[in-house]
Structures are given as C-alpha cells and as structure tokens.
Amino acid sequence: MRRFLVILVVAALVVVSFAGIIDEIKKRGYIIMGTEATFPPFEFVDKQSKQVVGFDVDIAKMIAKKLGVQLVIKDIAFDGLIPALMTNKIDMIVAAMTITPEREKMVSFSIPYFTAGQVIVVRKSDSFRPKKYEDLKGHRVGVQQGTTADIDLSKIKGIEIVRYTRFTDAFLDLAIGRTDAVVLDAAPAQAYVKFNPKLMISSPVLSEEKYGIAVRKEDKELLDFINKTLKEMNSKTCYDFLVSLWF
Ligand code: GLN
C-alpha cells in the first residue's frame, strides 16, 4: 500500500512538472511580469494612479490579454530581475532589458522589440560636457546596478562608479552635485531631462542595444507565445501606436 502511494505521489509530481507553463498561468489566472519601475517611458509609477505604467507594461498587457489572464507587476531592483525569474517569483522580465550574451547564458530572450543606446547626462550649470565614456575618467558617475551602463563603464579604468538601485536616486544625486554624470538608455534619459531643467544630455548615443523579453530557458512554450504576440503587434501597427503613445 505504501509503495503504491509513493508511486502515485511521484506520478502526480511528474504530471505537475510536465504540465506546460501556459496551462499553469491560465489555471492561476494571471501572469507575473518583473520590472524596475524608474525607467520612463518603458515603466514608471504614474503619479495619480500610483500604478506602474508604460510602453513595456502595455506590451505585457497584450500578452496577458492574448492568454486570457490578468497581468500582475512586480517592481524589483534591476539586478534582482534575473534571480527572481530563475527562482520562479516572476514569469517574464519586461524591463527594457538589453539582450546580451552574458544574460543569454541564464535566460531566453524574445525577438528584439526595441533598439536603444546609452547616453551621458550632466548638469547644465557645470562646464563638464563628456562626449564619450573615456571622458568620464576621473569623475564620479552614477549608473543603475547591473545595467549595461554599469557593465560597460566597469571595464574602463579610472571612472569612479556610483551604483544605484533606483534612477530617481541617481538623478537626485546628480542634480545636487554628488555625482558628475549619469549613464543610461537614451529614451529614459530624455524623459528625466524633460522633467528636470537643470540636466542635459551631453553625448551622442554611444551603443546599439536591443531589448528583449526574458523567460526561463525551459519555458520555450511561453517564449514562442511571446514571439508570436510581438510579431502580430508589429503587423497590426499596434506597435507603432504604442510608440506614438509613449514617446
Ligand atoms: N537597457 C539597459 C540594460 O538592459 C538598462 C535597463 C534598465 O535600467 N531598466 O541593462
């Protein structure tokens, strides 16, 4: 009898672990997106509704809608997103995350959905006008921990990097002179500069990066579904509409 029970339990576990991720999401009725919400216009907290909104959120809502489930958003530190995905706390990362070979070792990325690049933001009142990363040598530079800006600047000797969890804090420190520059993706840089007349972008776009939605490597079924949704969005000019809405 006991042996029979053991076999039954093992069989049940096998069935559960082989039930697809899409079935699992549909059964529970929601899909969990992980993001870091100080990155306008991709993801940021709307002042009035206090909800996380933005371009990425709308894309994730599209995926949820096609699955027939609700979207749940978890706002976590950028460098905690891949660990959260790998420990099943979230189902996908939609966080303006650049597809890089290092990250691809840990997660699978969708087809690219946005092309971006890094820029340098400085104070207008300062005479410091860096045009390239090398110009940042000997200066204190704010980045978000674990981002491509952090990774690329860390390779250059002589830059004093100050790592932040939230961009809001990085820009506060820049505005009051605790740092000399902040490096981040161009579209959020423009958004921050627009709302802070003390700041300006001093460099051209310094890299070419493609954003992808990340899922666990074993969730190929979900990856295929996301890619299908992204392709459909493109063909329906739904994507163009979202660009015109958020940029
Ligand atoms: N695109 C950058 C990266 O992937 C920054 C993303 C972010 O800060 N949300 O590292």
Structural summary, described in words:
This protein has 247 residues and is of the alpha/beta class. The protein folds into 2 domains: 2-115 and 210-246, D-Maltodextrin-Binding Protein, domain 2; 118-207, Periplasmic binding protein-like II (D-Maltodextrin-Binding Protein, domain 2, 3-Layer(aba) Sandwich), CATH 3.40.190.10. Helix content is 40%, strand content 23%. The chain has helices spanning 2-18, 21-28, 55-67, 81-86, 101-104, 148-154, 167-175, 186-195, 220-235, 238-246, and strands at 30-35, 38-39, 43-45, 52-53, 70-75, 92-93, 107-109, 114-116, 118-123, 140-144, 160-164, 181-185, 199-201, 209-211, 214-216. It has a 5-stranded mixed beta sheet, with helices on both faces. The radius of gyration is 21 Å and the shape is elongated. Bound molecules: glutamine (GLN). Glutamine binds at residues 36, 39, 78, 95-98, 144, 147-148, 185, 209.
Summarize the structure.
With 247 residues, this protein is an alpha/beta fold. Helices cover 40% and strands 23% of the residues.
